[in-house]
Design brief:
This protein is an alpha/beta fold. The protein contains 13 helices and 14 strands. Strands 1, 2, 3, 4, 5, 6, 7 and 11 form an eight-stranded parallel sheet that branches. Strand 6, helix 7 and strand 7 form a beta-alpha-beta unit. Helix 6 packs parallel to helix 7. The longest helix is centred in the middle third of the chain and has 20 residues. The termini are close together.
Length: about 350
């Protein structure tokens, strides 16, 4: 079953398009989006496609990915043009010829197995890939770089929540550091392009995001839990589960991106998170286990898995800055998790 035939997922898309945003800013505009088939990129493109049809905006989307046929099979090709490109490699003339109004760099390795098995690709997508995207975007109205809660590093014990000015400890002498340090350097690169090239750039910082558009290859703990819940199996927890994190359901993450894109201040970073989705890993696992009628079991990770895990034990975000733009979340943790499982069960 295609996600776009799923009534619950279509409700999510309607929830996004129903937000009170200045959608007229998108009339006749073109988008260039990397990471198009990822968790967030695919939901965003579905929402933009729905907006175009609902409001007759005349949107054009250029979707970048490593597999052109995968992009064409996933999206409405009347609106979406598939562009096959590894963002870390020299760009094709096809991409260079696109003069998009809005450019969004969403491509990134985003889960532990990728961090541990492809640490070079992890950091380079946030440096070389980002720079490649920035270089062709100097005439764009606005550029968006999707950053992460990981840039905050470990909580020093001096705050309850991370606001956008916080900076915690990261041990840069590990392969795992390629992701958070890559995001930090990527944000600095954006500020350099603003200063030197006069570009308009915004930086949403995403909390740990989940939802029905997650990839089956995703090895994040929450994704593994969800897959077990969908399969009706016990949830495997590979730690004591006391880590306390902020999470976002994908539809809320996408609305956050759109608020930042359309209303954010040039050079500004904005946390996307909500207090109703702050939860420990063991409580998160318990919600899924209860919903699936199963139990939580504990198991030690192997060395490859452990190498990709975050060392942060408490990383919850302050989203006051984004809420001042008018954003609020529509899905708490329980609702988001149950909804994800329900949608994915229909996909089996």
């Amino acid at each position: 079953m295609n996600l776009l035939d799923n009534s619950l997922y279509l409700e999510d898309i309607s929830y996004i398009t129903g937000r009170k945003l200045p959608w007229d800013k998108l009339s006749g505009k073109s988008f260039l989006i990397s990471g198009a088939t990822g968790l967030i990129g695919s939901c965003l493109i579905d929402a933009l496609t729905a907006l175009d049809k609902e409001k007759n905006l005349g949107i054009k989307i250029y979707a970048i990915g490593r597999n052109k046929s995968k992009i064409e099979a996933r999206f409405d090709t009347a609106i979406v043009t598939a562009v096959e490109q590894d963002v870390n490699k020299p760009f094709s003339e096809e991409i260079k010829s696109v003069k998009a109004d809005y450019v969004l760099h969403l491509a990134s390795n985003t889960h532990p197995m990728q961090y541990s098995t492809d640490p070079i690709g992890t950091i380079m997508t946030n440096l070389i890939g980002l720079n490649n995207m920035l270089e062709i975007s100097e005439t764009a109205e606005r550029f968006l770089f999707a950053s992460s809660v990981e840039i905050y590093g470990e909580n020093r014990g001096d705050v309850e929540r991370f606001d956008e000015s916080y900076l915690g400890y990261i041990d840069c002498n590990t392969a795992r550091a390629g992701y958070p340090e890559g995001k930090r350097a990527g944000e600095a690169l954006c500020q350099s392009y603003i200063k030197q090239k006069g570009m308009d750039i915004v930086i949403p910082r995403l909390s740990r995001t989940y939802g029905p558009t997650m990839l089956q290859s995703d090895t994040k703990a929450i994704s593994q839990f969800i897959k077990k819940g969908v399969a009706g199996e016990d949830i495997v927890l590979k730690s004591e589960g006391t880590q306390l994190y902020s999470y976002s359901y994908v539809a809320d993450a996408v609305t956050g991106l759109l608020y930042v894109l359309l209303l954010g201040e040039n050079g500004g970073a904005y946390n996307i998170a909500d207090e109703a989705s702050d939860i420990t890993l063991k409580d998160l696992a318990a919600i899924i286990a209860d919903y699936a009628g199963k139990k939580v079991i504990f198991e030690l990770p192997d060395a490859t898995e452990a190498a990709g895990y975050s060392k942060a034990t408490k990383a919850i975000l302050d989203s006051a800055k984004l809420k001042k733009l008018g954003w609020n979340a529509g899905y708490d943790m329980k609702k988001g998790l149950e909804r994800t499982i329900d949608v994915l069960k229909e996909e089996l």
